[in-house]
Amino acid sequence: MSGPLSHIKVLDLSRVLAAPWAAQNLADLGADVIKVERPVKGDDSRAFAPPFLKDEQGNTTRESAYFCAANRGKRSITIDISKPEGQELVRELSKNVDVILENYKVGDLARYGLGYEDIKKINPSVIYCSVTGFGQTGPEKDRPGYDFMAQGMGGLMSITGERDDLPGGGPQRVGVPIIDLTTGMYASIAICAAIAHRAVTGKGQWIDVSLLDSCVAFLANQAMNYFATGESPKAIGNAHPNIVPYQTFKTADGALILACGNDNLFNKFCEIADCVHLSKDPLYSTNGARVKNREAITNILNDIFLKKTTREWVKLLDEAGVANGPINNVAQVFEEPQVLARGMKIELPHAVAGKVPLVGSPMKFSDTPIKHEIPPPALGQHTDEILMSVLKKSQDEVTSLKTKGIV
Predict the structure, then answer these.
(1) Is 367 known to be catalytic?
(2) Which CATH number covers residue 354?
């Protein structure tokens, strides 16, 4: 493996998405990641299907597409941690790793002697990251949590989607489990910071990351809008609460996004749209004025955009240097020349499917480039390899563990 974290070993005890996403980020960065899964069933997300992958003959496999989204770069070992011998195997694996990731309910792993305080005794410098729905403290800490719940409780759904008074209005979840992903990203950042801190002090630590905290943090400018006004922001569809025009518009044959992030861009837009009078009108000449007069300026621009096709508008806006873009479906995303040029679609060999297309990492490094080399593993694909090469078990010991149902 190569990459800026190629010296780091990670034990991934997590499942579903948030923590596995963090572990996949570390794997992308070059870390050696061992994923521990339940025998027979494995990670819960292996059952989040259809769709399943298809093999080279077009036959459907039992490998879920969902699982593959968050588990490239990892080796899979199956261990039954409910049994003492399984717990001991995890402790053995924990002795020589730098990072442990887990997303069990608060206190669950401690019952098995695998909590932070337990592992710290055998690996004092370990960085132990716990990802939960509500965190390790507080009155809600024992509740199970999922992305959908966090989006609702954390306020994100209340500001997502069309206005409540319009058709289709009302609270909406984001089209991907964005709080799972955001929590995974926060966990990744925290782990990298803890690695940097350990390099200076030699000390490991326990990281506590939760879905609800991450969603609250993710409110960003909308939270500050509330703090500044005392009023809860509301959903406004594809418009922006603080910038106008920064939204979608219907064209003669479709739609596009116009993003005038400053007054200069709005002035440029007015020039190519033959509406310079708007940029000189005190009602619309500044962003603050346009926000106050949002409905009026939007109605004017709606009429203007209907005069040309999407392609005509994109050409004019691009030539003027005004930020804009089409609204692609997922298939169109992976036909975009820029997406392809940036290596955002990759393909790796797969133990069951023959090969699997994947989304590449967006992180680009000049000196330690990311190399995607390990595909999402089949369940327990590396069990023998890890037991024998990492834990130095003999073939007889491996056979005994399998016979007992430990692995």
Answers:
(1) no
(2) 3.40.50.10540
Distance, CA of 160 to CA of 170 (rounded, Å): 8
CA neighbor of 255 nearest in space, from 302, 317, 287 = 302
Q: Is residue 231 part of a domain?
A: no
Same domain, 391 and 288: no
pTM over 0.85: yes
The CB-based long-range contact list for 165-170 (8 Å cut-off, 24+ gap) reads 166/237, 169/235
Provide the residue range defining the domain that includes 20. 9-218+341-403
Q: How far is the C-alpha of 78 from the C-alpha of 369, rounded, in Å? A: 31
Catalytic: which of 12, 180, 208, 213?
180
Q: How far is CA 80 from CA 36, 88, 90, 299, in A?
A: 9, 10, 10, 62
Domain count, the chain: 2
Closest CA to 234 of 157, 149, 167, 178: 157
Residue 290 domain-assigned?
A: yes
Mean pLDDT by 10 residues, the chain (407 residues): 90 97 98 97 95 92 95 97 97 97 97 98 98 97 95 97 90 96 98 98 98 98 97 93 96 95 96 96 97 96 96 94 93 95 95 94 94 95 97 96 96
| 385, HSE (Cβ side, Cα atoms, 13 Å) | 10
CA distance 375 to 344: 15
